[in-house]
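Can you give me the bound-state structure? Components:
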Amino acid sequence: MLEIRRIFERRLLLLQLIGLLLPLLLAARLLDLQWIQHRGLLEKAERNRVNIVPVPPTRGEIVDRHGRGLAVNHISWRLTLIPERVEHLEATLKRLQGMLGWSNARLRRLRARIRRARPDRPVLLADKLDWSQAAPIAARLYAMPGVDVRVGTHRFYPFGALTSHLIGYLSLAGPEDVRAGVLPTEKVGRSGVERLFEDRLHGKPGAQYEEVDAHGRRVDVFKRIPPVMGQRVRLALDARLQQAAARALGDRAGAVVALDVNTGEVLALLSQPGFAPNRFITGLETEQWQAWVNDPRHPLLNRALQAAFPPASTFKLLVGLAGLRRGAPLATASTQCEGFLELADRKLRCWKRTGHGRVNLHKAIVESCDVYFYELGDQLGMPAISEEAARWGFGQHTGIRLGPEATGTVPGPRKRAGRRWRHWFRGETMITAIGQGEVTATPLQLARFAAAIANGGRLLAPNLLADAPPRVTRALDVSPAQLAIIRRAMRDVVANPHGTAHAALRGLPWPAAGKTGTAQVIAKAQDVKGSDAKTLSYLHRDHAWFVGFAPVDKPRIAFAVFVEHGGHGGSAAAPVAAALLRAAAAESKQAQPLASRERAR
Amino acid sequence: MMDTLKRMDAVLLLCLACLAALGLTTLYAAVHQGGLHLWHRQIIYWLTGMAGFLAVCFTPLRAAGLLAWPAYALALLALALVPLVGQVQMGARRWLDLGAFHVQPSELMKWALMLALAHWFASRDAASKKNAAVAVAMIAMPAGLIIIQPDLGTTLVLAAAGAVMLVAAGLPWRWAAGGLGLMLAALPFVWQHMHAYQKQRVLTFLNPQSDPLGAGYHVIQSMIAIGSGGIFGKGFLHGTQARLHFLPEQHTDFIFAVLAEEGGFVAASVLLLLYVVMIARILAIARRAATRFGSLICIGVATIFTLYAAINIGMVTGVLPVVGVPLPFVSYGGSALLTMLLALGLVMRVAIESRGRVYWQRPGSPLA
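Here's the bound-state model for the whole set.
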């Protein structure tokens, strides 16, 4: 054979070998992908294809004891965006801005929110859209990949500011909430009942498994896990009482707490001024938040439990109880009130300059004589007063757990002076005995105190929920006879024509018992003439208190009314209590059928 | 007539039939969602191509020898015209507008060069310096014209096919090694003159994850498609990567991924096996061809098929950079299918003209 033919045959053989080797190499690569890497790549293919769309649960409603909606859900449309599916983010946002009329500031905030968010999860751009806003967007979704409009619900607070502190507000889930399993598009309770019962109200998100194509368009829904609805929370609150109290309070700052005497159920819990909780729902503007924070009237402060004030003369009830229990001589005797008490170089005044004359415990409570209690406090001493205050729950949390609760202050048995401890000066003890100086309390604590007086000494934890079993913080060892003395005196504060609240609470359907208080805001010189409320600037005016219970013989409701810078307890606070009690009496007439209907449903 | 038909290589025909079936089935899966008009058109291309195949089978090989040089000259002229009047697509000037249809001269040149080289070495030995030099010039001229278009992929296919034919024609190994060394030395120079998009392709190939949504997207998605198919595949028309369009270019360059996703390793192996049998058969025909011209044609065709299939599959499996090369007999496209069927017709004609075990006995040939 020719040499050239032999070379050709050899090279042909080589080519044939290469022709076999190449496919073997490719087959090896295929095995690598389809066998060794199969699991990982299959997972990637599934992740490509499956879009798990979280379905937010519907938040449970909050209703009052008669089923009136306090926090309800309205249907609305939510606008979301999945960053990684958006082709032209800026153009898309601009387009939406044109359709929804967003401000540039809002657009900036949304951009920041999108930057922070996970690119594969929906980011909430707007909710609470009505159909007229949502429809044009829905019609143009095809031109804006990654944008979605879905029907959902938004929170609405029918009573607005009236229940703002109690119910609280929601805001968009933050990073910690998301870590805890909440969807980033969901709202979470930030204060009040919304926060306290978040677990119950929230429900559990469901999911929709959607098949999407490479352009992110939904092709099919192949699996659906329905969300678990949040539970309805029925509060013990009676919205009518809350309304009546608010109406009586008008535009004055203050707080009203009403408790069921026997169960500790919170029937009213009002703090004024309130804020507009519905403003939080669409995403609060920073300016609005700043305005609320900087408002000198502190609308975000829940005065019913987050702030403590001098209880003033309402504290005399406690000093009286201490005197009776400890057997202080004056508790069962009487003293002479000349309008002042001289103590060394000081002159402690009674509010009634002309003096009350002969005063015993009963008259001292009814007419709120300061001199009597200066002397009684002096006999008891600070340790006895502070021990009694602690017994009745002052200086402690009530256990309502509604946000950061103030404890108020109860003077300790001894006072720290510099590095050393020293005993209280007599003057300090005397001032404390009329509820000024060293002692402060929240309206909630005073309402609970009044409830305990009315129910025979059971100190209850305030109960926000309807039908929840009462929680007794402490059953006090207190003599019924001694309690009766105090109760009788409280009754005569209202019933006796000389009583400090007689004018305001006359002729109520439910005869009430109580105690007024007028707390000095600053230590004003007691001798200044014309120190009546009107001539003083607002911030220097006295706080007004009225604390009590009703009906007298069979107590059902205990209350504390606090009017900030309101002036006198009898004239400023007691009328609010009157309005509250009128509403309570009216409700108890209608409520029976209403409540039974509710149960039947 | 009957004699010609009887002398056709049955194995090759069977391979072709199987490839047609597998190719059309795969194409169906790739295009069925967008309507079947592409699929119908491909069937028409197949029918047209088979007519051409048969026509070539009944044409004496001498005609191909006569056509070799004019075809080469024409293709070279067309290539030279491209930079002057060509159409620009994606930064490259590759197409000539001939009114009714567009022609890619570089595509023509592959086959013309193969024919011309086969004819050049039909009666010459590549061990001669002069013969080899002419052959290298025949390869270098079109390669130079194509690389300035620029079209790196076609240039490489062309150069590789030419090189293989040179080697088959008996180019001494020393020279081959020298040429290879020269080309490697020229690489940095080529890199400097590459377009940005070509550099990007090479870089993306080296690290596809560097740009998963941009240049690397195609390869990543095709690897996901292939790998997720597993051994037995997801089933016909059930490939999610294909059905939901995560797979790009799935009816043309990336159609192998559709096959591998829906048919798994099994179907992909069947395709590889068909290629192996077909190439081996073509090389067997090269061995028993009556003339050296016929042998070299077979080697050229086998080389181009092999390069196409290997580059395409290497590309979609992520072991080679993305180069626009069709998968023979499977990818959608009329002109590629037509030229490949015509080439296969040439091979079949070589088989028809081969007689028994007597090789290269053309009378008057210095090699006979």
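A couple of observations. Chain A touches chain B through 39 residues (CB under 8 Å). The radius of gyration of chain A is 35 Å.
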